[in-house]
Amino acid sequence: MKKITMFEHKKVLVLGLAKSGVAAAELLHKLGAFVTVNDSKPFEDNDDAKRLLEQGMHVICGRHPEDLLDEGFEVVVKNPGIPYSNIIVKDAIERGIPVWTEVELAYLVSEAPMIGITGSNGKTTTTTLLFNILNEGNKKPLIAGNIGTVACGVAEKAQQDNVIVTELSSFQLMGTNEFKPHIAIWTNLFEAHIDYHGTMEEYAKAKFNVTRNQDEQDFLIYNADQEIVSSYAAKSKAQKIPFSSTRILEQGISCDADNIYWNGEVLMARDMIALPGKHNVENAMCAIAAAKLLDTPQQAMEHVLATFAGVEHRTQFVTTWNGRKFYNDSKATNTLATRSALSAFKQPIVLLAGGLDRGHSFEELREFMPNVHAVVVSGETAERFAEFAKSCGIETIERAEWIEDAVEKAYAVSNEGDVILLSPACASWDQYSRFEVRGERFVKAVEALQQ
């Protein structure tokens, strides 16, 4: 960890706990700051707050006092999930107090170079794939950010010969100031989180923070097939590495139906990538490009690409049984994600769909439904999705209450050679606390089928 002195004897407010808030508070305390922690959870039920109090930090729980900033804080480090409409955050901005997320702290203390990976979709798969490739290539990677361990906790322990592979959301990036990854990856940009950012423009600006401070010694890997991403990439001072899945690029990384190309020359066969779908080829190209920039042996890339079965709940291959392939895509909580999953397969599909009813239309899925020959619906949107499936000409439509029942019914209507795909196009909160719970129960139900 770099020995920085900028926080010594400075008053710093950590707003919101959970993993990131606790890690930020503990790091700031080690750096000599006078740390105050403010969390909405009552103290008597707040084990994190109790532990921080024992370490000598000032703790205020159960409320957010409107006059809190009168204590003279010089920095506010907030939990990424806390919106900028929060009264204390708004007050800090009006007073000119910097408002950061813990990612900024990670950058300030890290002795290791950082790779920052962002985008509306594909972040987790790209991050995990790149980490595995670098690990296979003996590059001593560490994984951090929106996946795995809190970034500042990883950075605190990182050495100069490590590289920190960091998944970054727009929420995290919006709270950065000097953050400057050596390699930035911007997978794509679609409309999302407008309730948090207010407009698509503000959302895009937050994503741009992954490269805003980069210079000519750094690299930006970006989606050349999206005009909006390319327009923001043009503002970056980093060396630009575009990727494309629609045309072969003379510079950067690209593909056609047969091969992956690096600077216009064949690098490897496209079918080396085990993950299904065009979106996963794009994720793989991002990981390959970053690995190339770090001089990773191609053998390491090819080995990982050929054996990587996917991240849990993200078009994750579960098993093959009685000629059916089972995939867990529980993370597909919107139609955009389900479109990507449906387009990944050429085989006939039995689709498990439905969940929390947010009132959104399923029409965006229509052009991707011809390969679906049966649907099993559940959750609040069961009847709406059933009507949509019927309008797509699908005759086999089953209804299930829970995912276990859905798996049994999906198998019953399937044929040898089918893909049985959980890709709900809806959030899970009507029945399950998290999409991970839904996915885990799907996997267990598939395992139970085989017994």
Automatic annotation (TrEMBL):
GO terms for molecular function: ATP binding; UDP-N-acetylmuramoylalanine-D-glutamate ligase activity. It comes from the Bacteria. It catalyses: UDP-N-acetyl-alpha-D-muramoyl-L-alanine + D-glutamate + ATP = UDP-N-acetyl-alpha-D-muramoyl-L-alanyl-D-glutamate + ADP + phosphate + H(+). GO terms for cellular component: cytoplasm. Pathway: Cell wall biogenesis; peptidoglycan biosynthesis. Residues 117-291 form the Mur ligase central domain. Its EC number is 6.3.2.9. InterPro entries: Mur-like_cat_sf, Mur_ligase_C, Mur_ligase_C_dom_sf, Mur_ligase_cen, MurD. Keywords: ATP-binding, Cell cycle, Cell division, Cell shape, Cell wall biogenesis/degradation, Cytoplasm, Ligase, Nucleotide-binding, Peptidoglycan synthesis. One of its GO terms (biological process) is peptidoglycan biosynthetic process. Transmembrane segments: none annotated. Belongs to the MurCDEF family. This is UDP-N-acetylmuramoylalanine--D-glutamate ligase. It comes from Candidatus Kurthia intestinigallinarum. The lineage of its organism: Bacteria, Bacillati, Bacillota, Bacilli, Bacillales.
